[in-house]
Amino acid sequence: MKPLGVGLIGTGYMGKCHALAWNAVKTVFGDVARPRLVHLAEANADLAKARGDEFGFEKATADWRELIADPDVDVVSITTPNQFHPEMAIAALEAGKHVWCEKPMAPAYGDAERMLAAAKASGKVAILGYNYIQNPVMRHIKSLIAEGAIGTVNHVRVEMDEDFMADPNGLFYWKSELASGYGALDDFAVHPLSLLWFLLGHVEAVITDMVKPYAERPLKDGGSRAVENHDLANVLMRLGGGISAVLMANRSAWGRKGRIALQIFGSKGSISYDQERMNEFELYQAEGRDSEQGFRKVLAAPAHKPYDRFIPAPGHGLGFNDLKIIECRELIRAIAGEAGSVVAFKDGLRIEKSVHAMAQSFHERRWVEISS
Question: Within 13 Å of residue 252, how many CA atoms lie on the same side as its CB?
Fold first, then answer.
């Protein structure tokens, strides 16, 4: 397979993460062609030029449409704010490009449907940036569940907490606009939903409560503006096979930095995991003498593939950006026609459908069933 020509739209937190992944994927894995960093787009020409030089791109532009029209670009990374995803992804797909779009797909479900339709019509690979499923520890947890290591799963609890919006005096910005989505649910809780899908399948029914801890936020030049979405969400869920589940998401949780606390309970044991300690998990198996039963900590190691492609020794630990490198390789494999572990637009739309059902449940104050 010839080297892919890469276009990158957006160079903030996730844009830099994508650039690091494209730069490192050949070095880490060795079994893919080194991508060619062709074209970068940002909001203005000066910033585009600066980021292009920093990230190693050949060309830079202030017009993302120019990037998409570039014949040397084969795959487009989209890392812009949520509301821009649909127009950019659809334009890229219609131009015959593969797409790697950060989550969520779109604030409006109809736009997400149009993105999937464009992907199907194009025949190109289109995936979403759910890199937490790429953690070697998470892959091993999946295999343990499949092997029956904790018996039949009957209950799951997952919490996602961060404190980037915990300060009541924090300035109003786009994440508090309705145009960006419901708030904690789609900006945020889609990550634990991707883990639930990866481990156990999609959500089938929900009932939801959402909260605004701060009704207004100050503006930079004085005054304030009403917060238009919700920073907290609590959801009761039913998964396939009669599994009960609870999801709690909070963007205003002082002290929490990147927490996805996952507990999986089965008929013969349980598994506990926390994203803030992403290189370990705890396994309890109800076997042996009662006097020695207890959780045992398992540290990430070369036995948990593809940890070994980064580090040859156990217990040293991978990071967030490393997961993006793994996701990048899975995307390249998918483009080459191989079976890659990615969240394609089809499954991404099902996650979006769950989010919109949760919002519907909140507004209608009832359980909402989610069709396949």
Answer: 22
* Averaged pLDDT in 10-residue chunks for the chain of 372 residues: 93 97 98 97 97 98 98 98 95 98 92 97 97 97 98 98 96 92 90 96 96 96 96 97 96 96 98 97 95 95 98 96 98 93 95 95 97 80
Q: How many angstroms separate the CA atoms of 338 and 26, rounded? A: 17
CA angle 16, 18, 24 (to 5 degrees): 100
Tokens of 192: 């634990």
CA 294 – CA 49 distance, rounded (Å) = 56
The Cα angle at residue 62 between residues 56 and 64, in degrees rounded to 5: 85
Question: 58 near 40, Cβ under 8 Å?
Answer: no
Rounded CA gap, 64 and 38, in Å?
Answer: 13
- 260 near 274, Cβ under 8 Å? yes
Strand 244-250 to 153-161 pairing? parallel
